[in-house]
Model the fold of this input.
Amino acid sequence: MKKYVFGIDVGGTTVKCGLFTVKGELLEKWEIPTRTENNGAAILPDVAETVLKKISEKNLDKEEVAGIGIGVPGPVNDQGEVAGAVNLHWGYVNLADDMEKMTGLAIKAGNDANVAALGEMWKGGGAGSDSVVMVTLGTGVGGGIINNGKIVTGVHGAGGEIGHIHVTDDVERNCNCGNRGCLEQVASATGITYLANRRLQKDDMPSVLRNGQVSAKTVFDAVKAGDALAMEVAEEFGKYLGTALANVACVADPEVFVIGGGVSKAGQVVIDYIKKYYTANAFMTCKQVRFALAELGNDAGIYGAAKMVL
Amino acid sequence: MKKYVFGIDVGGTTVKCGLFTVKGELLEKWEIPTRTENNGAAILPDVAETVLKKISEKNLDKEEVAGIGIGVPGPVNDQGEVAGAVNLHWGYVNLADDMEKMTGLAIKAGNDANVAALGEMWKGGGAGSDSVVMVTLGTGVGGGIINNGKIVTGVHGAGGEIGHIHVTDDVERNCNCGNRGCLEQVASATGITYLANRRLQKDDMPSVLRNGQVSAKTVFDAVKAGDALAMEVAEEFGKYLGTALANVACVADPEVFVIGGGVSKAGQVVIDYIKKYYTANAFMTCKQVRFALAELGNDAGIYGAAKMVL
Done:
């Protein structure tokens, strides 16, 4: 009988590792450095080594290990092949096959944003539902869509690329993706800073934001303090993101939206601004969905990776 | 061994019926009237009767019939329960259970737009792919999303409600759904007529559209004849729909978009206007998807209904 499962989250700097029970209890977590030199050739052998070492250290019977789930920052298809991952210096990698050969264990692989969404569905803000859309508001806007408990990968690995929904013609620069007017440009931490600076330059309305550094955090701190200009910026953010998520609901129609990433640390106020415009624009049967803050933080990836195997 | 399957498409006026081989060959199709009186209480018994009569008429062995697939104009959950269907005068109906009791055959039920999408995936414009988004441009804008060969129903039956994606703040009236600025208001046959009339009123630019009735058909006829005003209208239509589909691709990431409904009868020119704005706004990995015209016309529903069973 299977008792244990490993969840691995490969990032550009560190590889986060977790040993779980099959019920989802995190028994131990640790990190190893991500060695990106030589096109990241050492990354998978390092992961295999640390897992096998843990099995031996804990005196686990390999037969009791259900397998290893691995999230990576790049598009991954259903066969566990990675098309490429810039931050790992990877070109094409047959991750599932390579890892299975090195460990003799069952391997599942997925895109890190999708895998984090699965983690939040399993043990985080989306727990209790199997149809969850997760939005990660960090430097960019990441997304992951879980439908009936399964990640929606998409034919080109773009399932859940919510950050690149076109939301406005009113920005001056191109997005990193090459298009212009992506959600990421106005709803990520960077995007909120952009909206705030643009608003500050528009006129000389007083604001505490004029006294120090402008960031997503200082904007939402100012909102909580009742700063009128910051509240205008939050409205604009909420309009872009809330409307985009209403449109996502017309396609994926989830039960829960989970909001994570650095911006979500501001708490319920972020959800309140999103929900206002979500509710105004969502299709009638979808207006009452649940919005939840992410709960697993940086551990969402290892939880979701483990869940992929089960 | 199963050899046959029935596909039924229940509309507000007629019920379309098809007898298929399990390989998808349409052996015979026929229609019966939809009797909506008494809250549509006769509709399902009528369907059961016509199917059983066909089995007897054709001397089929019931053991050889895989089942009956039924599409209805309302939200249907995975258990085959219909929450309600205005055009059939139905409230809640446990379609799958009721039909199984009346026929002794396996029953599958689905929303008609989703079922039509499945039909086009199986034997129409999306054939060869199992990840298809279908858009039906009729009086409204219908949608159906097929991911890995399965309909995306959504938690509230709103999966594929593409017509209610918010695309503009620049319309004067509310949509039938109660919101304002839905895709349906500017990309359906009705929506194109609205855009054309609005453009005609804006100034007195000459156009053949000033000489007769304005409709989606006359607009695209005028486009083909090189009418400059009609081409402006088609650009606006293409911008709304192409951008909306680019956003759909960020969520569902299909292999093929199938464009159907009355508007699509204008042919490739419709796709050309959509693709221009789709390509400009789609996420990089999705820019090269295939666009196809629907091929099954009014038979898409019976094909898709049959496919649901298989």
